[in-house]
Write a structure and sequence with these properties.
By secondary structure, the chain is α/β, with parallel strands linked by helices. 26% of the residues lie in helices and 28% in strands. A seven-stranded mixed sheet has the order 5-2-1-6-7-9-10, with helices on both faces. Strand 1, helix 1 and strand 2 form a beta-alpha-beta unit. The protein is elongated.
Length: 309
């Protein structure tokens, strides 16, 4: 097939590589503009652009696709299909109507659950046992298109946002290639999404602020879901304290104000939550490197009764 690929972040790279590997003609890549990075303000290419350039593929970077001349360029290409993976812009109907097989999106959830920007992290945060990827034929709604193919995945007990991201990126890439094969062969029957749609709200840095009045179970899931970004955090003596790994002390029966350190055993820090206790196993104090709690305690004066937050 002749393909136009639209995507921007790391999650989309595996799919672009699999399309190329499968022998499809990627006529063009459309991605977001380069962004300034760090104090120097030097422009950095999106990961998808880096892959496209490495493979000699023409790249377009419109600020707004809807009002861009790129639309006419896509019309000239006349692709069989437009593949969209975490592109970051809504496709107008003028683009949706161009390709013969439509615009096919890879989405990292079992739609209609978790439409929106952060389905991977919310699956972990909410304690889901199952996640997966779907390919959908896009319409004018946000993640509302008909389902083409689905692949499910059972989350590991220690699943993090990062590990699930990596897993679903690879699964989605292979599922997309199978979807293209099925569309070309005419063997796929699109299925409308059912009821019960939920929305996976976009995450920001403040999303990681720990509320110790919640249960330790919920906080531990937050820690895993927001690893590696934006990371769950609290405060110690006015400094940000990132929590990278934690466990639940289900035997703790309470008695301390949530956020209070009730035990230190030389290897872990135990903090009271609204229900149960949180065992902090890996952390990072502002200005310091990430380390296990045992190493942190060697150079810290934190004591029983210290209040975090």
């Amino acid at each position: 097939m002749k393909v136009v690929f639209m995507g921007t972040p790391d999650f989309a790279v595996d799919t672009l590589k699999e399309i190329i590997k499968a022998g499809h003609e990627v006529a063009a890549v459309v991605t977001q503009p380069d962004k300034a990075q760090g104090r120097s303000g030097a422009l950095k290419m999106p990961p998808v652009k880096e892959t496209a350039v490495a493979n000699g593929i023409k790249v377009y970077q419109p600020v707004k696709l809807r009002t861009s001349e790129v639309v006419s360029e896509i019309e000239k290409i006349a692709p069989d299909v437009i593949v969209v993976v975490a592109f970051g812009q809504i496709l107008p109907k003028t683009v949706l109507d161009i390709p013969k097989y439509g615009c096919v999106n890879v989405h990292a959830s079992l739609l209609p659950k978790y439409r929106g920007a952060a389905p991977i992290q919310w699956a972990v945060i909410n304690g889901d046992k199952e996640s997966g990827v779907v390919t959908q034929r896009m319409d004018e709604g946000i993640d509302t298109g008909e389902i083409l193919m689905t692949e499910k995945y059972t989350l590991a007990p220690d699943e993090t946002g990062g590990s699930l991201f990596d897993r679903l990126a690879k699964m989605g890439a292979k599922l997309l290639v199978r979807t293209l094969e099925g569309l070309e062969a005419g063997t796929i029957v699109p299925t409308p999404q059912g009821e019960g749609a939920t929305y996976a709200a976009k995450l920001e840095k403040l999303s990681g602020h720990i509320d110790f009045t919640q249960s330790a179970v919920k906080i531990e899931r937050l820690v895993r879901g927001l690893d590696p970004w934006p990371c769950a955090y609290t405060y110690l003596d006015g400094k940000i304290l990132k929590i990278w790994a934690a466990a639940v002390d289900a035997g703790y029966e309470g008695g301390e104000t949530p956020g209070t350190v009730y035990k230190i055993d030389g290897q872990n820090i135990y903090v009271a939550a609204g229900e149960g206790g949180l065992i902090i196993k890996e952390l990072q104090l502002e200005g310091k490197k990430r380390m296990d709690t045992e190493s942190f305690l060697r150079g810290s004066r934190i004591t029983r009764g210290t209040v975090l937050g």
